[in-house]
Amino acid sequence: MITGANGGMGRVICQQLLLSGYRVILSCRPHGNGPGFCQSLICTYGRERVDLLEMDLSSFDSVRKAAGLLMEKEKRIDVLINNAGMLGWKAEVSEKAYEMHNTVNCLAPMLFTWLVKPILTEESRVVNTVSVMLRFGKIPDFFPYPPEKFNRFERYSCSKLALTLISLRLAELWKEEKIWVNMADPGIVNTPIIKLHKWIDPLTDVLFRPVIRQAPRGASTAVFLAMDPSVNGKTGTLFRDCKPLRLPARISAHTDADRVWSFFITLCTYGNQQ
Length: 274
Ligand SMILES: NC(=O)c1ccc[n+]([C@@H]2O[C@H](COP(=O)([O-])OP(=O)(O)OC[C@H]3O[C@@H](n4cnc5c(N)ncnc54)[C@H](OP(=O)(O)O)[C@@H]3O)[C@@H](O)[C@H]2O)c1
Prior knowledge:
274 residues, alpha/beta, 9 helices, 8 strands, binds NADP nicotinamide-adenine-dinucleotide phosphate
């Protein structure tokens, strides 16, 4: 299963998994071009190999509903690729008043992963899409509430750092059960997410986009983590260009990791009790 299946890299990952013989569940928002993309894959690969799970990561209700539907239909998920992500251009909060980047890029996909744990079995793989920006992230005092000043890169970096911290904990927690949780850093990739929302965009379209990575290369690490036999037994590792990268101690032993984790666990527990 892959989230953000209709995005720049999501589309490539879906194609690669399908070409390799997997059955793929595409997760997309209910509106937009997701359902149409899913339909085009059904035409090519057949209904028995392609399914759609609608989920909006800005809403925990949508996440819980999608997790419930998935578990009603499926006995097992071999690979869960948390690929969906956003880089906003204005201050936004979720219905719980949590900062939107932290919601969409970190809390919602990790809540989904936690909820579908019953159908992750031995040798299942979870691939979380992070970014080089995680290294610049800071966890604010009131995580995941928004700080006063809006800076899109600060908020994005914070969400990817928080995603990394939770990934590391989940990897440790699920190691004994042989559920492998790893992180993919795609590099800087020519997809819609990197739009600056400024007058300079048409210029960067011509001068910048052609020289950076294109989607197939950006997607290659997630595809590798999803399928390559050498990944079996590896967990809690960040990969770029299909190779492991060492996280500095200030991240692997982050001083705010406990705080982020306890917030996350409270969110999961509270959700399960509802
Ligand atoms: N491109 C880069 O340079 C770069 C670098 C580092 C990391 N990444 C990460 O790579 C991943 C894939 O991004 P991309 O580059 O392929 O960008 P993209 O083309 O913009 O794709 C983003 C995907 O996320 C989905 N998404 C956004 N908000 C969502 C929400 N609230 N609920 C459900 N789905 C939502 C989008 O769906 P809609 O079509 O409905 O909006 C789209 O399918 C992201 O996690 C991103 O942070 C990208």
